[in-house]
Amino acid sequence: MQSGLRHRWFILFSIIPALLFVFGIVLYPLVQTFIYSLKNMDLLSDHQGQFVGLNNYTHALMDSDVWSSIGRTFYFSGVSITLEMILGLLIALLLNEKLRGIAFLRSIIILPWAVPTIVNAAMWKWIYHPEYGALNGLLMQLHLISEYRPWLSSPWLAMNMVIVADVWKMTPFVAVFLLAALQMNNKSIYEAASIDGASIIRRFFTLTLPFLKPTILVLIVMRTMEAFKVFDLIYALTQGGPSNGTMVIIYKAFIETFSNLQYSNGATLSYLIAIIIGILTIVYVKVLKLEEGA
Amino acid sequence: MRKKITAILAAILVTGLLAGCSGKNADPIASSASSEAPKNVTITALFMKQAGYSEDAIKEATDAFIKENPNIKVETTFVPYEVLEQKTLVANGGYDVILVDAPWTAKYVKANLIKEVTDKVSTADRDDIFAGAISAMQYEDKLYGMPWLNDVKYLFYNKEMLKQAGINAPPKTWDELIADCKILKEKKIVDFPIVWSWKQAEALAVDYALIAGSFGGKFVEDGKPVVNDPSNIEALKFMQQSLTDGLSNPGSPEYLEEDVRGVFSSGKAAFALNWTYMFGMANDPKESKIVGNVGIAQVPGTAKAASATINGGMGLSIAQSSKNPDEAWKYIQYLSAKDFQKKHAKDALPIWKSLFADADVIATNPELVNLSKTQYEYLINRPQVPWYGELSKQMQVAVQVALLGRSSPEDALNKLQTKALDMSK
């Protein structure tokens, strides 16, 4: 009995460092940000720091700028995740084959993902440069365009170019995950199926895809969370421009906080993002459970 | 056995914890503050990487300062202009000396980030500093920093291209500029005669404030926004027209000053607006293909104003949280002294009026020194209100919406005015 008590104290003692970390860098900021979102922390105002209840939230939700940046974030996430899933799956299928030099291919495919996002963004900035960018040079040599053109000067095009940069970086991540799942697949089922005369496409849709479904769902959840928080790319490539064409919600929160010094607005937007991601995750998990039950 | 393992684990954890604590004590700021030795202090200073005085010049002067004052150690940090403001706000308390751009002064004062220094600058000194440079560091008639960097925008032109087109002198008005651009384009001397820094960033707010000013417009009057003033609308129409006519480089909406320099220096534009630093760099064979062909002139104007340029003055302020404000001020004084400013006059013109008569200063660049005297007469400030940052952000969007033809200049500015009224409340 006594040794059990000592044991419990020891456990408590051992987890103190971890507790400190969790409280210090996770819980404290989370709570503090939430409190900010309920106050009027406008650093430029003479009256700051009073509680204003849910005012900040109603204000943000009635602001059409907030809704359009949420819309843009959904567009960014939707398109980039779809492309990453399709390309990632195709690459994973290729890498799963027994080809010559496959080990080499598997290792270089990881490279884009290994590059830090900000480096990736800086690189794409040069690729897209209107005067001496590689993209213009390539398209000119292929005779696809007749003169150099700007890529980030119109809102819709700029958004899609940012998506391309994101897809280039994150597709390898998806591919590696799916490849890992494919490697665990039972080869004999495929052999049996092909003996039974199932075509390659039939095998893909009735065997591979259902088998990969849980992995794909997990990937979608992970990628949604990340895509919703896209920041580095926007920061380095467009800074939200042109004419707010790439002003995603997290960048807006950043501007509100650190440029306009409206800490409350920034905190409110951050919590809205968290709520949206939370809802999406719940939906995904429900879907995942349904799939498992079926 | 099990107990042994847990004991070892506990020992590791405890040492880890202690190591963590001692690590905190080694924190440089804490140690400098706690050291009791006679005034042995370390101060930290935040500067920017591009434009104005070079990193080397500042480091050299800092070393000389440390030599003269062995008890003061100075640690300098250089960041790009684009992150200077955020760095200052986020690292609140991390620096003693901060480089402050003119449009931030009011905001920093409101947010209680910088110390007032009105009494520290003598009247004699004040009379010798350019009014524009002083006003950049002022808010409600109080001084919050030592003017340090004196900078305005000029019109740059490619002499060779103008000669080829048969144009004898640089344009004096925007109409002349447009006429010249049309000739240059028709004669196929250059695809897009003029290039601008119109990215959704402060650079766009600078150019718009300047062009609007030359059309006789203003953004704020007596603390109240007047963004949709007819002159401002006219200025925006001029900008939009130059893009739709194909006279302005179509990449302009994604360019910053450095991109403008790149385009101009590689001979792909006949005209460009930029800060003083481009004059030196466009004439540097390592950086430019058009060495010797760089012309510099007064920013064009209209019938309402002969010219207008923006006050890009910056100053050095003492952070409110600084533990060594006296040493920080000493360092600031050293960097803004006439010696330093004279020595590096080719990077940026001095803030001291008396230095403009100095033969050495004139010799660094007679063309620029002479031009600057007239250009300074048309100096305008961006609105000196605490909510300028927010106004600028919204203005960048509104102006781009009009530039990209997604809304008429009138609509864009009317909408902006509504938002600005809300901000100024």
Automatic annotation (TrEMBL), chain A:
One of the Pfam families matching this protein, by short name: BPD_transp_1
Cell compartments where the protein resides: Cell membrane
Keywords: Cell membrane, Membrane, Transmembrane, Transmembrane helix, Transport
Coiled-coil portions: none
N-terminal signal peptide: none
InterPro entries in UniProt: MetI-like, MetI-like_sf
Domain named ABC transmembrane type-1: residues: 70-284
Location (main, coarse): membrane
Keyword Transmembrane among record annotations: yes
The keyword Iron-sulfur appears for this protein: no
Membrane topology annotation: Multi-pass membrane protein
Transmembrane segments: 9-31, 74-95, 107-127, 156-182, 203-222, 269-288
Domain of life: Bacteria
Family per similarity comment: Belongs to the binding-protein-dependent transport system permease family.
Protein name: Sugar ABC transporter permease
Organism: Cohnella silvisoli
From TrEMBL, chain B:
Signal peptide range: 1-26
Pfam families assigned to the protein according to its UniProt record, in alphabetical order: SBP_bac_1
Record has Transcription as a keyword: no
InterPro entries linked: Bact_solute-bd_prot1, SBP
Domain of life: Bacteria
PROSITE patterns xrefs: PROKAR_LIPOPROTEIN
Keywords carried by this UniProt record: Signal, Transport
The family this protein is said to belong to: Belongs to the bacterial solute-binding protein 1 family.
Protein name: Extracellular solute-binding protein
Gene source species: Cohnella silvisoli
Biological classification of the source: Bacteria, Bacillati, Bacillota, Bacilli, Bacillales
